[in-house]
Structures are given as C-alpha cells and as structure tokens.
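Usage

Read records sequentially. Each one opens with the input sequence:
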Amino acid sequence: MASDEPYQPPDIAGVWDKVAATYGSIDPRAPDYQAYHRHLLEAIGSPAGRSICEVGCGSGTTSALLASLGASITLVDLAERSLRFAREHFDRLGLGADYARMNGLRMAFRDGAFDVVWNGGVIEHFTDEGKTALLAEMWRVTKPGGLLLVTVPNARDYPFIAGKTIARWRGKWIFGFEDDLTEARFRDLAAAAAIPGPEFGAHNPVVGWWFLPWGRSLTRRLGLDTPERHARASRFGHVLTLTARRPA
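and closes with the structure output:
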C-alpha cells in the first residue's frame, strides 16, 4: 500500500511484513510479557464481554490473551503478513477475532465502536503529524465511557536508545523509522489530538538493557529477568503508557 506522507514513512507495510518473520520467537509466558500484560489488565480491568480493538496488531499476542479472558477482539493492521500471523496464532489457540486489513489513520468503523482501543509499539513509527492523526482516529472509535490505551518505547530508557543507535550503525535495526517519546512529548501529542485528561506512567527498567551487547545475559545473571522486576514502575522504564477515559 502507498505511504500517506507526511504521516508515515514509505513502505511501512513492507517493513512490518519483514518484522512479522520474527514473531514466531515471541513467548507470552516470558517475564517481560507477564509484566506487560499485568499492566494492561490493571488499566483495562476485566476484558470479559468487552469489545477491544488493537490498531496495528502485529503478532496479536496480547490480544489473544484478552480474547482468552472473554473479550470480543478486532485486529487491525496494514501489513498483510502481520495480520496473517495473528490470525494463525488465534486459530492455534482456538480463539476467534475479526480481522481488518486497513490503515489505522482512516478506519472504516463508526464513531464509538469499541469499549477499549489500544496498541503498543505503533505510533512511534509515524511522524508527529501521523502520531496525532492516529491518536485522534483511535479516540474517535472509542465508546463514551471507554478506554484508550497506547504504549510506546520511552525515550528516557537510555540503555535502549544506546542499543538502538548501535544496531543502526551495524545495519541490524529492522524496525524502520522509530521516534520514541518522552512523557512531555506524548502529552503534547495527546493535546494535539484533543484527548482530555490523559494519564501517563512507565514501567520495566530491565528490558532496555537487552538491546546492548550481552545485556540480556547480564540481567539474567543479576536476577533481574523476573515479572516483578519488569513490572517495576520507573520514569526510565522501557514501556511508556498513555491511558484516557472517554467522557460518558
């Protein structure tokens, strides 16, 4: 699909089709995923009986967990290979979902279609105009009284930023354009998207070290690779989260 410049980089779907080849290595039982899912469930509450849309679903790993807990899931992605992986993942688990290959900047859903609209690791791959447009579109399809939840890599996770710089220098960075956010920038983008009263928090000060040489083995030797350590709140944590409740 063509790029929507100035909102998103060229060939964004092609980049993520290549990234999808790595999804088979994801282990949702790993300590970092356990911590991530814990934080999402604390924000969302019980998923049972709720309509949840993931915009830019990638592997669909977290949405599969939400489906297993009784949520009605809609998965949106521009990359055909990502959407196919997510469908196969759900099928292997005996779970159902609705699948939509569409651009998250222009979704064909009515206003207020979902109880929860969320994504993780998506908006940082857009320009600031694209980030704002995507946040506004996700907010549009969130029900009155519903929840918008967005996670991004934290630009204050300095080991991660250093590791990413090294990976780019070595030609090993596979995720294309990525513009990570501080809380201040995230707050400004939410304001530009007319999202009132957003709340922010960061967790997981461990996983950023994994992007440095020998970082993963070091954190394991130090006993840091546990759900509790990954879940720890920290302004330098890797996962920076925005949550906003749409007024009823």
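Summary fields computed downstream for this record:
- The mean pLDDT is 93.
- The beta strands are 51-55, 72-77, 98-101, 114-120, 142-153, 199-203, 239-245.
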